[in-house]
Amino acid sequence: MIEAFSEFVSTIGLFSFTFKQFIMVIVSLVFLYLSIRKGYEPYLLIPISFGMLLVNLPLTDLMSIPVDQSNGGLLYYLYQGTSLGIYPPLIFLCLGAATDFGPLIANPKTILLGGAAQIGIFLAFFGALALNMTPQEAGAIGIIGGADGPTAIFLSTQLAPHLLSAIALAAYSYMALVPIIQPPIIRLLTTEAERKIEMVQLRDVSKTEKIVFPIMTTIFVVLLVPSSAPLIGMLMLGNLIKESGRVPQLTDTLQHSFMYIITILLGITVGAKADGNLLLTADTLIIFAMGVFAFAMGTASGVLMGKLMSKLSHGKINPMIGAAGVSAVPMAARVVQKEGQKANPSNYLLMHAMGPNVAGVIGSAVCAGILLSYLS
Amino acid sequence: MDQFTLMDGINLAIIGIVVVFSVLLLLMIAIELTAKLVNRKGETSQVGKERITAKNVQSVDKQHVAIITAVLNQEVNLKDYHIKVTRKKEVKKND
């Protein structure tokens, strides 16, 4: 009787709770609070933090690896989609179907702002290297500066899977904090007069141009940086499906149902990698510090490029739109719109900022491809 | 990869930035060329280069005012009307 009772007690998780697991449960509850109560990236942070909660409750074996005849844990199997780099490109497929590249096609020069904002990635990469991280870890950390969650997850799984959860959390946390991080940098680097600049109305973009764009971009980018094919290929396929106008059901599925299914799977499995032993380390602090550095540098370099383009165009470009080059669609563009209206209430910069914003998505995917081809 | 030094890191960062800019620059040129090819008739490529302002509206005749008002109210699309050349000429005359 006593033996049976003690055997039962040994199966109760409460008695196997370690200190690190306890801390991780607290961290997951904080992220749940931020996502639900404060609305910080709730679509991803709710599944991520719940996955974190689940995996840190003792004896659940949700991430256990299959051994001999015994099956692995549920989240272990779901995690294969993340570790094999399947979910992030699928998210890109859905993003492509939800993205309008019209503002970029209407004003192609803004694509350079999307490139400038990626400089933060390489500065953070260099910074992480200087802090004794391995090149692969530094590459995975640097990509946080791209402010593109799926890209950060994709590159982390390929280069530094042990840092996945910390990088994903840092990337999504900073993306949620775009309205707090970017405005001071924008104001610091621009003058009142520059922020007041009104931009000329965008031209109409024909349907043919919108159809040609994803095909042309795929050919160009993949020919030049083949390792960016999973992300760019899926992004452009999604966009072509949308712009073709021939398959509205596919477009609708990608924009809604499929997007949410993959988001749940990606979120919960990323959270499931947040094991206390892996996350509660000094490396996590470095990741968060370098992440915000990358983000700030990306914003700054985008704005500085915007200032250069503004000078060259004799004040026809508002330099603030450079800040939207860090991707983070559409939050970064919204920040630019708000800052523009603060300086000049009749200023409407949203559509102009969407150009560099979507260019940033392409730019960060290209950067991921470059880092992957050099460091893998 | 064991031999990866800070100098290699600097090289990679420089190469990375150059490659990203080259790819995006080529893409920009390709978009511009596509726009020129697709919009050879100039129907859409000219539209919007000139901002529609109250000044412009005053400078054109009543018929054009009606059309531009409709465009501003987003009831119709400017490219549906072949008023571009006339409007530009009249704006110049007034200037």
Helix content of chain A: over 70%
Percentage of residues in strands of chain A: under 5%
Please state roughly what percent of the residues of chain B sit in beta strands, choosing from under 5%, 5-15%, 15-25%, 25-35%, 35-45% or over 45%. Answer: under 5%
Instruction: Report the strand count of chain B.
Output: 0
**Low-pLDDT residue intervals, each spanning 5 or more residues of chain A:** none
> Counting H and I runs of at least 4 residues, what is the number of helices of chain A?
20
Can you walk through the features of this model?
The complex is a heterodimer of chains A (376) and B (95). Chain A has 2 domains: 1-60; 82-254 and 278-375, no CATH class. Chain A contains 20 helices and no strands. Chain A has helices at 2-10, 19-36, 42-56, 74-83, 87-98, 102-106, 111-116, 119-130, 135-142, 149-159, 164-176, 178-189, 192-195, 207-224, 229-244, 248-272, 276-279, 282-312, 331-343, 350-375. In chain A, helix 9 (135-142) runs antiparallel to helix 10. With 95 residues, chain B is an all-alpha fold. Chain B folds into 2 domains: 1-38; 54-94, no CATH class. Chain B is 64% helix and 0% strand. Chain B has 4 helices and no strands. Chain B is elongated and about 70 Å long. Classes of the chains: A mainly alpha (376), B mainly alpha (95). Chain A binds chain B through residues 104-106, 108-109, 111-112, 114-115, 118-119, 121-123, 125-126, 129-130, 134-136, 138, 200-206, 208-209, 212-213, 216-217, 220-221, 224-225, 359, 362-363, 366-367, 370-371, 374-375, and chain B through 1, 4, 6, 8-10, 12-13, 15-17, 19-28, 30-32, 34-35, 38-39, 44-49, 51-52, 77-79.
